[in-house]
C-alpha cells in the first residue's frame, strides 16, 4: 500500500509534504480535497484527522497522521533533512513553530483571501499583509550574516518556510527589500529533486 496524501494543489501546507516526499523519492497516492468547499471533510477525514484538515497522510501500514509539521518530522527523521544534534533539531522546531504561529497565519491567509476573493474587507487584508511583512522581516534576520539555510544545512525548516514565502506575491507582497530571502528561495529551488508547487 502506498502512502496516501489527502491534498490540495493550491495549499502551501500540502506542498510542504509533496516537496519532502519528492526529495525522498517516496511516491504517494494523492487524494484532492478543496480548501474552499469543506462540506465533505467530516465524511472523508473524520476517522483520520480530528482537525479535518489537509494535509493528512495515511502511512503504508494504515496509520493516519495530520498536520504538515508533524508529517514533515515523521518522514524527515533519519534523513539529511532533519539534523541529529539535539540543538540543531531544536532550531528546526524553532523555525517550524515560527512558521505556523507567525508566518502562515498571515501570508497564507492573505494569499487564500486574494486567490478565492474571500477577504472580509480591505482593512482585514491590509492587516494580514502587515503581519506578513513582520514575519518576512524576521525571516530575513534569520538568514543574515551569509547564512545559507535556517538550521544546519537544508532541512524541513526551510521546506516549511519556503512553501508560502515563494508564493508571497500571490498574497500581494513584494520581496524586493529582502535580498537574503530571495537568495535563499533560489537555493531551495535549486536543490536536487525539487518540485514546484504546481507539480
Q: How would you sum up this structure, described in words?
A:
The chain is α+β, with helices and mostly antiparallel strands. 50% of the residues lie in helices and 8% in strands. It is built from seven helices and four strands, in the order E-H-E-H-E-E-H-H-H-H-H. The chain has helices spanning 12-24, 41-45, 68-76, 86-116, 122-142, 156-165, 179-189; strands at 3-7, 28-32, 56-58, 64-66. It has a four-stranded mixed β-sheet, covered by helices on one side.
Which keywords apply here?
about 200 residues; 7 helices; globular; single chain; 4 strands; four-stranded mixed β-sheet; alpha+beta
Give me the secondary-structure topology.
Blueprint: E1 3-7, H1 12-24, E2 28-32, H2 41-45, E3 56-58, E4 64-66, H3 68-76, H4 86-116, H5 122-142, H6 156-165, H7 179-189
Helix pairs in contact: 1-3, 1-6, 4-5, 4-6
Q: How would the global form be characterised?
A: globular
Give me the secondary-structure category. Answer: alpha+beta
Strand content: 5-15%
Number of helical regions:
7
H and E string: EHEHEEHHHHH
The helix content is: 40-55%
Average predicted confidence as pLDDT: 96
Q: Number of DSSP strands? A: 4
Radius of gyration: 17 Å
User: What's the arrangement of strands in the largest beta sheet?
Assistant: 2-1-3-4
Low-confidence stretches: none
Largest sheet: 4 strands, mixed
Determine the N-to-C terminus distance. 22 Å
